[in-house]
Amino acid sequence: MSGDRRFQGRRAVVTGGASGIGFAVATRFVSEGAQVAAWDIGPSTLADARSRIGDSLTSIHVDITDPAGVHAAMEQTLSALGGVDILVASAGITGPNTTTWEYPVDAWRRVIDVNLNGLFYCNRAVVPTMLEGGYGRIINVASIAGKEGNPNASAYSASKAAVIGLTKSLGKELAKNNITVNCVTPAAVRTPIFDQMSQTHIDFMLSKIPIGRFGTVEEVTALICWLASEECSFTTGGVFDISGGRATY
Ligand SMILES: NC(=O)c1ccc[n+]([C@@H]2O[C@H](COP(=O)([O-])OP(=O)(O)OC[C@H]3O[C@@H](n4cnc5c(N)ncnc54)[C@H](O)[C@@H]3O)[C@@H](O)[C@H]2O)c1
Q1: Distances (CA, A) of 70 to 64, 91, 178
Q2: Total tally of structural domains belonging to the chain
């Protein structure tokens, strides 16, 4: 189905759905007919998201780094929605901006735990119900940093490169099951995640974008929505640029 109600009857999980890109995706999914479960660690932002989006949004509090918590979130989602057709894995953190040799080990572990391990737990949690339903769309939010490697962001860049690898593997594993798995690699988009980065790093990211501005959550959402739609039926294991010209490969 295309047009305004292209997600009518679809059930979606959006991790990181309380803020930034995840919130924009959840909002558009609901406006186009989907029921959405927003999985997020921030209880106050989750409550706020629900009050802004309404009853079609189920808010589920979960730390995606906890596999048992992700399992419980999946159970809650299945009770609320009855199944899952779409996963958008958007939850993520940046970690500090410093050189690799000065990178605090605990911060490194946390970035890998959220951006890679947590995303893996969420991907694996939704696949069985998608296999049962004979349909699925998975979109992992990686980053241009995973393709290029940003200086002073090695944990983040490494975690996002790993998300690209996981997406390619899972895409091939599910290729015959009507379940597509793709990732997007945005350049910088102004969201609350900017609060986690140094101004020098933000300026560096902007300087690398030929179009000369940050992306918007609406632009990233538009791409994710196509990847989440029925129309995206012959594309899997793909890595989708949305970087204002920064990456041309
Ligand atoms: N904004 C950018 O410039 C940009 C660029 C490229 C990629 N990305 C990626 O896009 C995704 C979304 O980022 P955003 O800009 O919307 O940031 P954001 O900070 O606005 O949203 C991220 C959300 O993830 C949630 N989250 C963090 N850790 C979690 C955990 N352990 N369990 C559950 N939820 C958790 C946060 O509470 C937050 O609501 C991230 O994966 C980020 O790396 C962002």
Answers
A1: 6, 13, 24
A2: 1
